[in-house]
Amino acid sequence: MRLLFKQRFFSWFDSYDIYDEEGRTVFTVQGRLAWGHCLEIHDGAGGHIGTVKEEVLTFLPRFRLYLGGSYAGEIRKELTLFRPSFRLDLNGWRIQGNFLEWDYEIEDEAGRRVASLSKQLFNWTDTYVIDVEREQDAVYALMVALAIDAAKCSQSN
C-alpha cells in the first residue's frame, strides 16, 4: 500500500492530507493548539483514529503515539553524530534513516521491512511517500512519519 503524505499549504496549525495511489483522501491530520505538536489523525469519513503528541521539556524530540484513546508506543530522537537516529517503541519495530534525513526504513523484530518513508523534494510543502507492506500497519507507519516530520520541524525552530 502506498500513501502520499502532503502538508496543506495554508494552515494555522499542522494539517495534512494523506492520499492513496488513486488520489483518494484516506486520512486527514489536524494539529491542535497545545504545548508541542499534537496531531490528530482522522479517517476519510472524519472519525478519530489516533493521536501523535509531543512530550515537552525534553532535550531531544519525543512523541507518544495513541491509537484511538489507547497508548500504542513512542518514538524519540537520539543523539548521534552522522546519521539521524530514532528509537521506536512500537510493535517491536526498528527504524533507520539515511544521512540527509529524507529516507527511513521501518523493520520488524525479524528484520523484515514493514514500511519505508521517503521525502519528496521540490514541493511547496512537506511531502512524503509511505510504502507499507501490510495495510493494517498503515496508521502506525503514518504516526511514525508524522512524528519524524514534527521532530524535524521542532529542531529547525
TrEMBL record:
Pfam families: LOR. It comes from the Bacteria. Gene3D superfamilies: LURP1-related (2.40.160.200). InterPro entries: LOR (IPR007612), LOR_sf (IPR038595), Tubby-like_C (IPR025659). Belongs to the LOR family. This is YxjI. The lineage of its organism: Bacteria, Bacillati, Bacillota, Clostridia, Lachnospirales.
